[in-house]
Structures are given as structure tokens and as C-alpha cells.
Design goal:
Radius of gyration: 20 Å
Structural class: alpha/beta
Number of strands: 13
Helix content: 40-55%
Number of helices: 18
Oligomer: single chain
Strand content: 5-15%
Length: about 450
């Protein structure tokens, strides 16, 4: 089933350490490890930092970064082209003031940072299908932006079917339109529950061996390492660009839900790139700050907030952070903090940062970015990069009434929102999902 891994080639293991080591292409193809864990490097490769420069664009940096991770793999010779095709949009790093910078990750086709991982993963699957001619079914649980990015990236891709599960009534209208407008090889399911119910269905599907094998399941959530590595790339790029100009290691404030975005920053720092501290901003779902404050990991039911893509009560990628820090919360606390931000504060910050005043930025931001913007204001005067994860136009029903003005849609997003929509409503249980998906993927 698996590719043979020769000595010296990059190997990947499960965080739960109860299954065989695999190659990167097998880790990408499977999504989730057979024991239910997440794939991580057996050991992080040594990266030659001298090969990176501030003159390199995001595609060039991603390629140079990922080369050792793909060493010896069937995808190795295609990696440069994969990066070129996946990272074809801008990644602006804006200066707000002498100590605050804004990294805009929403200039891809679906106007969210998820485009980085989804497009990279799609390009990988195109190559793997040409090599193996085996059709895979991608299951993706989404709290807002992931499903839209994955559906867009994989729509009409040969050899791949996509099932998108989203919490019905818990995503914005524009997000739901992006999740449900595709058809063909993409099916959408509105789950009568919360995001954690969607995530439970996906995990249960992988653990149902017969169902898993019949559909050749894989994942495009950030549990898939093919989604995660591209997120390492933009932290590497931002840290290099910033350090070259300011001769200081930047710290990052990251809106955090399922924590895949944040893991990208931790891995970039682990590889030796110039990153100082990492601050995780959450909404009213407080499991991460509570863990760092008290040392006890206690997942909870998710709470609906204005920053809905972060409405996660049991973040999957914490398992990768537990693995990275060997379950030592004191080690994780070094250079890492977390803060919960309420809906009331999110609204105030959106208004405040839109203004050209001493405490304003003159920038219109989304509710998720607002959590990070507020957290940044509570931090010291070191160099902080606030990660902006989505275009504010995706949250028009929140942002526009607050600012009393229309937010112009990016052209690519406008085209997507003009498409007709369709989805199936299911109960928050695997059997309900299985009954619907057994109808098959059809052209509409």
C-alpha cells in the first residue's frame, strides 16, 4: 500500500506512534494516520537558512522550504511546479506603525488564508492521480473558510471527490454560498449541529474501516500535512522579509480555531527561522488560554461567536503541539501566550481599527483578525505581525453595519457568490452522512 522509504529520505509518523512511518505522499493521501493520530516529521530536517533571501517571493520560499520535506518522494521532482501553481497570488506585509505589521493572507480566490493549503494540496493530488490513477474522496469539516477553499481548489479535479460538512446556521451567508455552489465532484452537507459535530463525523468516517476503504477517504482539513506545510511557508516568508528590513525577529499574533494556522508558525520557528514569540488569539472558545493558564487540557462544546471560523471547542491540531512540546505545558508557555476575546470587543475593534486615529489603523478587518488586533494592543512594544486571515467582505452582515458602509467584494469572490447553491441537510451522526453520500457524486 505504501511507497518504500529509503534510508535518508524524509519520514512521517503519527502523533500517537501506533502505526508505521510513511512517505510524505502517503501522509498526504491518507490525511489521518491509521491510528487516528496526525502526521508529523519523524525529525525536523536541517534547513539551510542561507538559501533564503528577502528578494524571494512566496512561491520561491515555499519551494526552498519544502524541498527537504519531500526528499526522495514521488512528488519531489514536481514540487517547484506545484508551488508555482499554488502560490500565484500576493502576500502583502503592511506596516501599521513602528511596532505593528499586518500580514494579509486573503488575496487568494476565496479570500481566506485557507487558499494556501487547499491549492497546494490540490496540485499534489493532481500529480498523485496521474501516478496512481486511484480516485480519492476528500472529507472536509469546516467552520467557515476551509470548505470553500477546498471546494474551489478541487472542483472538477480528476480523481478526486469532495464532501464538505459545515454546521448549518453557524457560518455567514457568504461563507455558506462558497461552500454550496460547486456540484460536479463536490457535495455539500449542512450538519444540524456545531463544527465539533462535523469534525466528529469526519473522524468517525476514517475509523470506519469498511466505509473508509470503499471511498478511499482522505482529508483536506489542517489535519492533513499537505494543508499544513504551505502554512509554514508564509510564516517563513514573513519572518525573512521582516528581519531583512528591520534586523529584528518578529513575533506573531494569530487568530486561532482548529490551530493548524498556529502550528505553521511553531514549525517555522522550530526550523530555525527568525521568529520570536507566538500569541494565539481566540474568541469566546477559551480552551487554549485555559490550557496555558492552568495546564489542564479540557475540550468543551463550541460556542457560536462573530468570529465563527474559530468556533472550535476541541482543536484537532493541539495534538501536534502536544507532540512538539512533549506534553510539557511549561515548554509551550515559553514564547507563547493566548487570550480570549469577546464578541463585544470584536465589534469595538473592527470600528476602532478602521479609523485613522492614534489607536486606529485605517484598515477594515474581519472579525477573526479583530481578535488578533485586540490581543496585539495588550502586548509590549516588540515587533508584532498581526495575521489577517480573511477579507472583511466575507462578513458583510457583521462589518458593514458597524462601519455603516459597503465593503467591496474581491472580483474572484464575487464570481463565486453568483453561482447557484445546493446542499443536503444531515443529522450530526455518521450514519446520516453515510446514507446521503451513498447516493454518489453526480454532475448537476
Amino acid at each position: 500500500m505504501f511507497c518504500q522509504i529509503e534510508e535518508g529520505f524524509m519520514k512521517w509518523r503519527s502523533t500517537r506512534k501506533n502505526c508505521a512511518e510513511v512517505s510524505i505522499s502517503d501522509a498526504i493521501s491518507m490525511g489521518l494516520a491509521p491510528d487516528g493520530g496526525l502526521f508529523v516529521p519523524v525529525s525536523f530536517p536541517e534547513v539551510d537558512l542561507s538559501k533564503f533571501s528577502a528578494q524571494m517571493n512566496i512561491s520561491q520560499i515555499a519551494f526552498e522550504l519544502m524541498k527537504p520535506f519531500f526528499k526522495g518522494d514521488v512528488l519531489e521532482n514536481y514540487l517547484e511546479n506545484i508551488c508555482h501553481n499554488a502560490f500565484s497570488f500576493d502576500v502583502p506585509l503592511k506596516k501599521i506603525n513602528d511596532n505593528t505589521f499586518l500580514l494579509e493572507l486573503f488575496h487568494g480566490p476565496t479570500a481566506a488564508f485557507k487558499d494556501f493549503g487547499a491549492r497546494f494540496l490540490s496540485e499534489c493530488f493532481k500529480v498523485l492521480y496521474e501516478k496512481k490513477k486511484a480516485t480519492k474522496t476528500i472529507l472536509v469539516a469546516t467552520s467557515g473558510d476551509t470548505g470553500g477553499a477546498v471546494a474551489c481548489a478541487f472542483h472538477k479535479n480528476p480523481g478526486v471527490n469532495v464532501a464538505v460538512l459545515f454546521p448549518l446556521g453557524k457560518v455567514s451567508q457568504r461563507q455558506q454560498a462558497q461552500l454550496t455552489c460547486w456540484g460536479d465532484n463536490v457535495l455539500s452537507f449542512g450538519v444540524s449541529g456545531v463544527f465539533d459535530d462535523c469534525q466528529k463525523i469526519v473522524k468517525a468516517a476514517f475509523q470506519d474501516q469498511q466505509f473508509n476503504e470503499s471511498l478511499q477517504l482522505t482529508s483536506a482539513n489542517s489535519i492533513n500535512v499537505g494543508r499544513l506545510l504551505p502554512q509554514v511557508a508564509y510564516y517563513v516568508a514573513a519572518s525573512i522579509w521582516h528581519f531583512s528590513q528591520h534586523q529584528k525577529k518578529p513575533s506573531f499574533v494569530i487568530p486561532s480555531g482548529n490551530v493548524g494556522n498556529a502550528v505553521g508558525a511553531f514549525w517555522a520557528r522550530t526550523l530555525g527561522f527568525p521568529i520570536d514569540r507566538i500569541a494565539l488569539a481566540t474568541n469566546a472558545n477559551q480552551v487554549i488560554p485555559e490550557y496555558l493558564n492552568h495546564g489542564n487540557w479540557q475540550p468543551k462544546s463550541s460556542i457560536a461567536t462573530l468570529a465563527n471560523a474559530m468556533d472550535v471547542g476541541n482543536p484537532s491540531n493541539m495534538e501536534r503541539l502536544f507532540d512538539l512540546f512533549e506534553n510539557n505545558v511549561d515548554q509551550m508557555r515559553k514564547g507563547c501566550g493566548s487570550l480570549s476575546v469577546s464578541d463585544e470587543i470584536i465589534q469595538k475593534v473592527i470600528v476602532q481599527k478602521s479609523q485613522n486615529k492614534p489607536d486606529g489603523w485605517g484598515e477594515v478587518i474581519c472579525p477573526h483578525t479583530a481578535t488578533a488586533a485586540y490581543y496585539r494592543d495588550q502586548l509590549d512594544q516588540g515587533h508584532w505581525i498581526v495575521v489577517s486571515t480573511a477579507h472583511p467582505a466575507k462578513f458583510d452582515l457583521i462589518v458593514e453595519p458597524l462601519l455603516n458602509k459597503k465593503i467591496e467584494l474581491p472580483e474572484s469572490l464575487s464570481q463565486i457568490l453568483n453561482r447557484p447553491t445546493h446542499f443536503e441537510t444531515i443529522d450530526p451522526h455518521l450514519n446520516s452522512f453515510k446514507l446521503c453520500i451513498e447516493k454518489g457524486f453526480v454532475n448537476e
